[in-house]
């Protein structure tokens, strides 16, 4: 079983749609959770950290369910510029090492 | 966020040659550097962790004699792919570790193609 699992997609949605991505992780000792965005042939860039209480940043909302070891990302009012691969990232146990999911590809069409 | 540079941004080389990739942290001192690689349509995989002035720690399955890491200063770490082969073709990305912070920022990456 992979340490971090994501649906690879692609999710193909029209502009303005709401889309949700899910991610599960296997290490119950993990403490830090993130969503990164990666554009084609570029490095990953931090989109947002994920906190236990859930957090929102504009059109993006992240949720964490520690009991189910499950993380989600909700994107509202999708823009063309949201097209990218979204990486679910979890630290390995109590270490600083990050484990990356293989990413979920989002395509927003006009 | 942290500013990180990598050089070169891309390189094409013949099989058997060695390639050195530099990673610089421009606006802070990085005591730890993480090196990742990413094959097409796959996830980033951690290769090794280096601490300034000491030997790097390699992840399982990564050959330390093939991927030489030097972290001689707080602003520069290098990864040398020795005797590169086509299967080493990948996107190599560095990421400085910030003490007390699990968030990581990444260099722009180096795309290596071995012919």
Summarize the structure.
The complex is a heterodimer of chains A (110) and B (115). Chain A has 110 residues and is an all-beta fold.
Structure description:
The complex is a heterodimer of chains A (110) and B (115). Chain A has 110 residues and is mostly beta strands. Chain A is built from no helices and eleven strands. Chain A has strands at residues 4-6, 11-14, 19-25, 33-38, 44-49, 55-57, 60-65, 70-75, 84-91, 98-100, 104-109. In chain A, strands 2, 4, 5, 9, 10 and 11 form a six-stranded mixed beta sheet that branches. Chain A has a five-stranded antiparallel beta sheet with strand order 1-3-8-7-6, with no helix packed on it. Chain A starts with a strand and ends with a strand. Helices cover 0% and strands 50% of the residues of chain B. Chain B has no helices and ten strands. In chain B, the strands form two sheets. Chain B has a six-stranded mixed beta sheet with strand order 2-10-9-4-5-6, with no helix packed on it. In chain B, strands 1-3-8-7 form a four-stranded antiparallel beta sheet, with no helix packed on it. In chain B, β5 and β6 (57-58) form a beta hairpin. Chains A and B meet through β5 and β10 of A and β5 and β9 of B.
Topology:
The complex is a heterodimer of chains A (110) and B (115).
Chain A: E1 4-6, E2 11-14, E3 19-25, E4 33-38, E5 44-49, E6 55-57, E7 60-65, E8 70-75, E9 84-91, E10 98-100, E11 104-109
Chain B: E1 4-7, E2 10-13, E3 19-25, E4 32-38, E5 45-51, E6 57-58, E7 67-73, E8 76-81, E9 90-97, E10 110-114
Parallel strand pairs in B: 2-10
Antiparallel strand pairs in B: 1-3, 3-8, 4-5, 4-9, 5-6, 7-8, 9-10
Question: Can you tag this structure with a few keywords?
Answer:
heterodimer; A: 110 residues; five-stranded antiparallel beta sheet; 0% helix; B: mainly beta; six-stranded mixed beta sheet; 10 strands; 50% strand
